[in-house]
Design a protein that fits this description.
Blueprint: H1 4-33, H2 37-57, H3 61-81, H4 86-114, H5 117-141, H6 143-164
Length: 165
């Protein structure tokens, strides 16, 4: 059984990573495919739709997290190699959907262990907002630092999943 402190830490760190991931992917999309409102809202729609799919039908958290991580790396590489192309945009939207799917799956999967879903949402959402704020600060410094931190935190989350499951 997972201890309450570990549950809170997992929720907060997951939220932090998701906030960083969303900003890093959104910024990469805007820099590599054009800073249009339609593209940004398409990205958010893909993330939200992925979240709904993950919450409703997701079953394999490690695979979902791995897919989100790998697709994010693929999106960044595609945007760098083929900027402003439909392929790079599609890969980035898929990365957003995969990240959202992991978020939805994480919340559904962890809710029974918490008993009170409001507490889970509080910890995860506070982490998410903190990730967004940290990502915004990091963008003033370097988008590469943001991407690196997001990658390291994603790998640490995956390692924690491997250890705890």
């Amino acid at each position: 059984m997972t201890r309450p402190r570990h549950l809170a830490a997992q929720a907060a760190w997951t939220g932090l990573w998701l906030g960083l991931q969303q900003v890093a992917l959104g910024f990469a999309l805007m820099a590599g495919a054009g800073g249009t409102a339609i593209l940004f809202f398409a990205f958010l729609a893909a993330w939200i739709a992925g979240g709904a799919v993950g919450a409703a039908w997701g079953r394999r958290p490690r695979l979902s997290l791995a897919a989100a991580f790998v697709l994010a790396v693929a999106a960044r590489l595609a945007l760098e190699a083929w900027p402003f192309t439909p392929l790079s945009i599609a890969v980035t939207l898929a990365a957003g959907a995969a990240s959202g799917a992991y978020a939805g799956l994480f919340l559904r999967e962890r809710a029974p262990a918490w008993g009170d879903p409001r507490r889970l949402l509080l910890w995860e959402n506070n982490g998410f907002v903190s990730g967004y704020a940290l990502a915004g600060i990091l963008l003033f410094w370097s988008s590469h630092v943001l991407e690196g931190l997001t990658a390291v935190l994603g790998l640490l989350l995956f390692a924690d999943r491997l250890r705890s499951e």
